[in-house]
Amino acid sequence: MNLPPSDHRRPRPVMMIPLRRCGSHALRLRLNMSPQFYSPYPLHIVDFLPLAPLYGDLRDDRAYFRMVTDIVGLQAVSMVKWPGIVFDPVEIFEAIRHQPRSAHRVVWELLLRAGERQHAGVVMDKSLDSVHYADELMTLYPDMLFVNVVRDPRAQVASMNRAIIHDFDALLNAGTWLAAHRAADHVQQRWPARVLTMRYEDFLSDQEATLRRLCDFLGIAFLPQMLDVAGSQEAKQIAQLSALWSSNCYAPIAANVDKFKQQLSAHEINVIETLTGDYMDRYGYTRLSAGDAELTPEATARAQQHSAAARERAWRDLEQQNFRDYALRRCRADYLAQLHARLTAQAAQPGRDAIVTLDELDPAAFEVSD
Gene3D superfamilies this protein is in (predicted)? Predict the structure, then answer.
């Protein structure tokens, strides 16, 4: 594939898209076995972006420095630490203050610096939801590449339904799936030479062929050790932290490709296929239903109520079943809630930095990422 030249003064930026629970960790962990490649645990900056307008005009050095400091703090409270690196917000601010200002620019400065420390030629962000900000990312980094990972929407929604980072309802998660893939379509249509689209199921059936194709697209060498994820210390580490990642230290099981048939009801499958049927046809997934579910506002309202109740139960269960996972996710949620409280107070009293006490925080107002 002939790609436009990259800026070789820094690692080449790569974004994995479009939606979590697609097998993205499995791919990231294997690629990380290459010294040419670096992809740390993602920041999922989309959780921070609703706060961005509260900083005010980022042309004001004070406002932008606050944002830089807070994003550095977000990296510090990440569930999985980036090995061997601590960022100085003053140093980061001085390095990028004369460049276009945005939360994405701050995040990528952290990523690129971490990649440079690892002597990598390619740095990938696995914050898949950032597909919705591809236009801004391409403005900042015109040489960016995109790895578009497609998974059978029924299997992916079934996985999402059990993950605390998503909704707990097939209708809502199928809608999220559809929106993400529409955003990925925009990327593919606008920058076709910059996008590699691959099916997760193809990776399950032939790891080596899929990884070779992916390495060729990224411009790195395929290494045989990529086929043995048991040799990855990072895979072992994250498998112990959360049930969401428990299988990442083992070889994938191809037989699980149809596991969704036991996890979803016939009605849920019909709902998913009604929303995503065109994409299923495009990517070669055989339909199992008529795809004629009635998707009414009342059904969406019921789904939202069901998901909210299930989310409360999931948090209680997580606290009892995996105190490490719960505490790490709660720490990140608390940090985002603290930022929200502080920025809201500052917006109410312009020109005055607010001091926020613990009883003012509302961590439940913020979702947390994987």
Answer: P-loop containing nucleotide triphosphate hydrolases
